[in-house]
Predict the 3D structure of the following.
Amino acid sequence: MDFSLDNELIEQIIFAMEDQQHSYYVHRRSGELVGEEEIEKDEGQEGIEDPFVPIPEWQPAHGFLLMEKFVARLRNPLLRDQLKDALASGRGVFRKFKDILKTSRGAEHVWFTFKERELRQVVRRWYNDQRELAGLERLEEEPEEIDGLEDLLGSDFAILPGQKQHLDAVRKLDEAAFTARFPDADPRRVADIFRETRSTLPDLAAKDSLLLVAETADQDFAGFVWAVESTDAFIPGRILQVHQLAVVQRYQGMGLGTMLLRRIIAEARDRGYHRIRSDLSGKGLQLAGFFREFGFQAIAQVMDLDPTHWEE
């Protein structure tokens, strides 16, 4: 394999791999990609035995396994279950899979990026295998870049200060996210508590509020994080209290919550806050691990027991 594997050739090989109607080969010395019919016409002219090597095999079964790998990495339970059902549906699997992804522009973008990076790795491994067969040293392969799907979304979402046009959507999502924390409670009581707690806080648009909003590339509202300055009698310095971090359902599981939390932590640092904290309650306690990944530590814990089910 005397040729260099540049990005242009990688893209050509990937395109040819997905062509199920024809077979393609690469010339060992020039790196030229040719169809099988061209090989038959030119074969033997250079006096070199077998000068062409077939490109990596890529059949529908390989594509199916790649889709399964992608679904296994998704954290959005709704989207993950829909895609799992599509993969188990039998006929029309590929079309159903793509149709579901189209319902979320962010997810579709992640899939195409994920697929491209995986295929690029396949081509690089193929190239190194051919070098090894020819007695050449394997080249160092690029490390896999996908540790989490959220890293693929930076170009598809924008995090910006909340504006007047965002407030209605933020308020609706704020109430919905608050209500979702207490699925077993009386909805009317939850609604009352939500209004009571929010009445004690500055308005979203107030100077004391720090509101960051996530938008898609099409400027659709996708989520927000909202914090207010607070104090603690036991801890000196300024504290930024996060009161809500919420993502619109169709964008959940794509790392957008991570992007929002990272951004507000950076804002807290740049604005001179000494601490940033968030109170978790109800189903929100499930986010404890998420916050710990950023270095948050528990500073209090409420213990609860139903004595009617307690036995001595």
Observations:
- The chain has three domains: 7-54, 60-152, 157-299.
